[in-house]
Design a protein that fits this description.
There is one protein chain. By secondary structure, the protein is of the alpha/beta class. The chain contains 11 helices and 9 strands. The chain is globular and about 55 Å long.
Length: 309
């Protein structure tokens, strides 16, 4: 298999295990590229990519932009905060205006679940979902699984615990789909108020005791509390949340085994994870950042190179 089975990357549930393996094999090659003295290849020299971020983003936006420039693409950056969207322009109007500039690919983050799917049905460009509401964030899941594979040799058979604000997390849902397709066992852990009812239908273990989750897993992926998405209070206070679900060195050392610590960022240091854990030798958080560029290069390259049906 030398090309993806899909024209767009809208979510992990829309791609196959073979697609994921192809992305990883391509990312392996690009990781070698970005560690060379000259970190650029001409692979997408004739491709124009628009980054449309209708929600604030730092890490994902920078990672995509760097990936695009490493591939020699022409890049247009669009931020809704300083655009005509604030004046009432619709998503379709905005995108059509950009596509009139002959854009080949669109990387989009939007607050509404399904925005990337909606867009893919109305424009000709290839669409990459960089996060749609609390729905999916496919490239984050791919880089997380790629990082686990790099650290532990493979994903199949490994026990992965996703811990924290599951209810509001697009990272959690994409990670579950990706890890399950690659043969991992998945557990979600967090307060009952932050656990969606549909988790029971996704063939994952559900745990509310952090210590039990840590003793079970090989990898702990710590999610931040998404206060910006919470319209009501889901727990009494951040202090109480931290006492129950915060990961510090004392708790980590008490489980009696070495596990891998991950975090999709941005980190709320001292809330879901302390600095001495985030910066420890068990953490692969900075590896995730580096791998994010390689994985996004792979996704861009594979989608751009696919011949039309």
């Amino acid at each position: 298999m030398t090309r993806l089975s899909t024209k767009h990357l809208l979510g992990i549930r829309n791609i196959t295990q073979d697609d994921i393996e192809l992305i990883f094999a391509t990312a392996d090659n690009f990781k070698q590229v970005i560690n060379r003295p000259i970190k650029k290849v001409p692979s997408l020299r004739d491709i124009t990519i628009a980054n449309l971020f209708f929600e604030n983003s730092t890490r994902t936006k920078l990672s995509f932009e760097l990936a695009e420039k490493r591939l020699s693409a022409d890049v247009i950056n669009f931020s809704a905060s300083g655009s005509s969207v604030k004046k009432g322009e619709t998503l379709i109007d905005t995108v059509n205006n950009i596509l009139a500039m002959k854009v080949d690919m669109v990387v989009m983050r939007h607050a509404n679940p399904g925005a990337a799917l909606f867009l893919s049905k109305h424009v000709q460009a290839k669409i990459i979902n960089a996060g749609d509401g609390a729905h999916e964030h496919p490239t984050q899941a791919l880089l997380d699984a790629f990082s686990i594979r790099e650290k532990l040799g493979e994903v199949r058979g490994k026990k992965i615990a996703i811990i924290g604000d599951i209810l509001h997390s697009r990272v959690a849902l994409s990670n579950i789909h990706c890890l399950k397709k690659l043969g991992a066992e998945v557990m979600v852990c967090g307060p009952r108020t932050l656990m969606p009812k549909y988790m029971g239908g996704l063939d994952v273990k559900v745990e509310h005791d952090l210590n039990k989750a840590l003793k079970w897993c090989d990898v702990a992926n710590m999610l931040r509390i998404q206060l910006e998405r919470q319209e009501i209070k889901y727990f009494p206070s951040l202090r109480e949340y931290t006492m129950q679900y915060g990961l510090d060195k004392k708790r980590l050392d008490s489980i009696g085994k070495k596990i891998v610590i991950m975090h999709p960022g941005p980190i709320n240091r001292g809330v879901e994870i302390t600095s001495d854990v985030a910066d420890s030798d068990q953490s692969i958080i900075l590896d995730q950042v580096e791998n994010g560029v390689a994985v996004r290069m792979a996704v861009l390259y594979l989608l751009a190179g696919r011949t039309e049906n």
